[in-house]
Specification:
The complex is a heterodimer of chains A (112) and B (116). Chain A has 112 residues and is mostly beta strands. Chain B is mainly β. Chain B starts with a strand and ends with a strand. In chain B, strands 2, 4, 5, 9, 10 and 11 form a six-stranded mixed beta sheet that branches. A five-stranded antiparallel beta sheet of chain B has the order 1-3-8-7-6, with no helix packed on it. Chain B is globular and about 40 Å long. The interface between A and B is medium-sized, with 25 and 25 residues.
Chain lengths: 112, 116
């Protein structure tokens, strides 16, 4: 059972470039979300989804887009990367009624 | 609205000493509370969680935490620290206890250092 899989694990981008962080889960979870982790700030919610076709903004959505065309996948798109988006990104999922959230291994992104 | 306050961004203990990491929360709904541990360059590992029922929760690696509603606290303890416990610890509160929420709010983390 793979759980929550994120790719890539490490990425370096130039300012202005775009990229997509991939997230896939094989647990048939309805809820998926993206967090970013920055030193001294803990994890902050970027976007979340409660099911295929439904997404909503979290605490820090600016500069990011998401879509949820299938239950399994929840990609995070950086439209025009900025140095302020240098961070560690975590994808997570849970069932609608579940009390445990499952995290991916993280994606380390550096924007230069 | 929810929030989590972790007192002390850095805590240092001697090996074999008591570990106490403090977490206070605020929540407008009955909270679910979590402690996660993160080792350098790794993801988050769930240590323990409180949802309902017994207020003293035991987790992995000898850690436990007690939910105290009157104090809005969920402090993490371990009787005897081990060198392998050195890591960053995050407290988190969710609003999905009532079935309708989606938010998991994290504290800013506490870096635990264990010294010989």
């Amino acid at each position: 059972n793979a759980g929550v899989t994120q790719t890539p694990k490490f990425q370096v981008l130039k300012t202005g470039q775009s990229m997509t962080l991939q997230c896939a889960q094989d647990m048939n979870h309805e809820y998926m979300s993206w967090y970013r982790q920055d030193p001294g700030m803990g994890l902050r919610l970027i976007h979340y989804s409660v099911g295929a076709g439904i997404t909503d903004q979290g605490e820090v959505p600016n500069g990011y887009n998401v879509s949820r065309s299938t239950t399994e996948d929840f990609p995070l798109r950086l439209l025009s990367a900025a140095p302020s988006q240098t961070s560690v990104y975590f994808c997570a999922s849970r069932t609608e009624l579940g009390n445990t959230i499952y995290f991916g291994e993280g994606s380390w992104l550096t924007v230069v | 609205a929810q929030s989590v306050t972790q007192l002390g961004s850095h805590v240092s203990v001697s090996e074999g000493a008591l570990v106490l990491l403090r977490c206070n929360y605020s929540s407008s709904v009955p909270p679910y509370l979590f402690w996660y541990v993160q080792y350098p360059n790794q993801g988050l590992q769930l240590l323990l969680k409180y949802t309902t029922g017994a207020t003293l929760v035991k987790g992995i690696n000898g850690f436990e935490a007690e939910f105290k509603k009157s104090e809005t606290s969920f402090h993490l303890t371990k009787p005897s620290a081990h060198m392998s416990d050195a890591a960053e610890y995050f407290c988190a509160v969710s609003d999905w206890g009532t079935g309708g929420g989606n938010k998991l709010t994290f504290g800013t983390g506490t870096q635990l250092k264990v010294e010989l």
